[in-house]
Design goal:
disordered C terminus; 9 helices; alpha/beta; binds adenosine-5'-diphosphate; binds magnesium ion; about 250 residues; 8-stranded mixed sheet
């Protein structure tokens, strides 16, 4: 059984088909790179997996249970880092994590232990009592990651986790993802292709809502659909795959 399974997922916003019949699975130990140009439908797909918006069609299963049928149970098994910085700028990281722990129903010694674990993993112990809006973008992102891993979920959905970080911060977040990977199913969206080569065990490419290719590392590079990319050359393959993509919105018209 895959930890995460997406079946025929679609989302329409009025005339726009943001996500068009997307299916994939993620097993324990996998870090799936979810690639696509801006507007491809990555964030919309991730919001549906996390249960923030409901699909127009299709479904999501977590640990074999349907998200629509068992929303509380499945949400408890998912950690989600939305795109951008966390909200609640007036809170401190400590206050924010306590708030999230309460919302997750954590209590007593477990609540404290989970907060300590998350704080230690993203290394924010020294900024815990500073208001979030005074933190650098890198530290805001870490606070977001801390809330995503707080309840130690087996499934992690991270929407552009390194977006806006400097090279050192990017490296640290990738290290964190690598450390957590063995026990979890992780999906990260990105348009940074070096990131895919650095942390992903598999990748899928979407454009205009449609899944166009699937790939994995092979001896001497990456195989993405029919294309082979030598190290550092995933960008050329990505362009070849996504530039030829038909527009589902145009086709529907
Ligand atoms: N709430 C919404 N209402 C209308 N259109 C939306 C909404 N959210 C996303 N879209 C559209 O759906 C498409 C996919 O967006 P998104 O999932 O954010 O892409 P990505 O994360 O890959 O950049 C875009 O055309 C975007 O404008
Ligand atoms: Mg996005």
């Amino acid at each position: 059984m895959s930890l995460l399974e997406i079946r025929g997922l679609s989302k329409r916003f009025g005339p726009i088909t943001a996500v068009d019949n997307v299916s994939f699975k993620v097993d324990q130990g996998e870090v799936l790179g979810f690639l696509g140009p801006n507007g491809a439908g990555k964030s919309t797909t991730m919001k549906m997996i996390a249960g923030f918006i409901s699909p127009s069609a299709g479904g999501v299963s977590v640990l074999g249970e349907d998200v629509a049928e068992a929303p509380l149970k499945t949400k408890a098994a998912i950690g989600y880092l939305p795109e951008g910085a966390p909200t609640y700028p007036d809170m401190t990281p400590r206050g924010f994590l306590e708030f999230v722990a309460d919302a997750r129903g954590l209590k007593g010694p477990e609540r404290k232990a989970r907060i300590d674990y998350a704080v230690e993993h993203v290394d924010i112990g020294h900024v815990l009592d500073q208001s979030i809006d005074t933190l650098s973008k890198g530290y805001k992102r870490r606070v977001g990651l801390a809330q995503a891993i707080l309840h130690d979920p087996p499934v992690l959905i991270l929407d552009e986790p390194t977006d806006g970080l400097d090279p050192n911060q990017k490296h640290e977040v990738r290290e964190l993802i690598r450390r957590m990977a063995p026990g979890k199913a992780i999906v990260i969206s990105t348009h940074i292709l070096e990131e895919v080569e650095a942390v992903c065990t598999r990748a899928i490419v979407i454009a205009r809502g449609r899944l166009l290719a699937e790939g994995h590392p092979v001896e001497g590079g990456w195989q993405l659909g029919e294309h082979f990319a030598e190290p550092g050359r995933l960008d050329a393959v990505f362009r070849a795959i996504t530039m030829g993509a038909p527009s589902s919105a145009q086709e529907a018209a």
